[in-house]
Recover the amino acids of this structure.
């Protein structure tokens, strides 16, 4: 039974390590996306209002990412505590079963956090797309306004000429 318990504990430790690696990769991807958003905001030549809009989007995404990273850190600490506890509880199979359940719960929490990170990435992409569309709409409206202004100026000139002629 002890050998079986030891093997199972080793398997769980390996599984935890794999989950930690996946979690770190997810955190790195989130940080990279935040960095890309910052670079995009810096590289574009937007008006002040557009820059503040992108900045607000970036701040919102960054705060969400920081919250998720804190949750991830908390889970890592709990995983480490579980590892320490599993090493000292090899003699008790009841304790082992309890730790296994906690490990499953932590795995579910990690999966939920990874899903949240994916949702945040998608949300950031949607907001970025919306920002780009708004910028295009603004540019189109400016072109229409310039055209209307030119037409108005031309009509005024024509009317003045007609008035002078009369």
């Amino acid at each position: 039974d002890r050998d079986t318990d030891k093997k199972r504990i080793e398997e769980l430790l390996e599984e935890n390590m794999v989950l930690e690696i996946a979690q770190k990769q997810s955190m790195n991807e989130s940080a990279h996306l935040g960095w890309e958003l910052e670079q995009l905001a810096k590289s574009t030549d937007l008006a002040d209002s557009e820059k503040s809009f992108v900045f607000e989007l970036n701040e919102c995404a960054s705060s969400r990412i920081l919250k998720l990273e804190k949750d991830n850190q908390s889970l890592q600490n709990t995983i480490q505590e579980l590892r320490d506890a599993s090493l000292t509880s090899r003699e008790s199979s009841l304790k082992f079963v309890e730790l296994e359940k906690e490990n499953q719960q932590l795995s579910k929490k990690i999966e939920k956090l990874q899903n949240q990170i994916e949702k945040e990435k998608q949300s950031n992409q949607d907001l970025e797309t919306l920002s780009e569309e708004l910028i295009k709409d603004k540019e189109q409206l400016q072109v229409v306004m310039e055209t209307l202004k030119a037409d108005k100026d031309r009509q005024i000139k024509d009317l003045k000429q007609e008035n002078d002629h009369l």
